Predict the structure.
Amino acid sequence: MIARLLTSASVIVLLASSASAAEEEEAHKSLFDPSNAELWVLVSFILFFVVLFKPIRSTLTSKLDGRSEAIKSELDEAQRLREEAQHTLAEYQRKQRDALKEAEGIIAEARAEAERMEKAAAVRTDDLLRRREQQALDMIAAAEAQALADVRGLAADVAIEATQQLLTSAAAGDGGDALVDQAIQDLPSKLN
């Protein structure tokens, strides 16, 4: 290709140099005269483009085709990346919705658990209060029973002491011996 280019260029230069010397003489000649240098410059110029047209066209076509393929490849890659990005976006949006639903479920479950715990605590508190109240009532009843027993014991002690004083004063005389004898005789019948 370079050889053709150089050959065509040298033919053009030779024709142009011979044409410039003969230009003055041939100014009056016709353009289509075979001895006219302008005709040969035109013919060599046309031949130059005809010879170079096919290689230049194939080079330009291959470069344009290559560029076209590169652009098509870039467009295909951009489309693939766009589809991948849309898929990834949809997947993350789905994950976000799932996470929100899960968070709402956890919150609802925590609220329900808090309500159950509150109810259980209220039941335990009520049970504890009832037990404490029962213990207080039992302690009051025990204190009343103890007080009653203490009062009875004190009353018995007072009655025994009073009886002792009465018996002592009654037994101080002759009537006391008779009372002791009578109590001894009644003793076997009272023990059975």
About this structure: DSSP finds three helices and no strands in the chain. The mean pLDDT is 82.
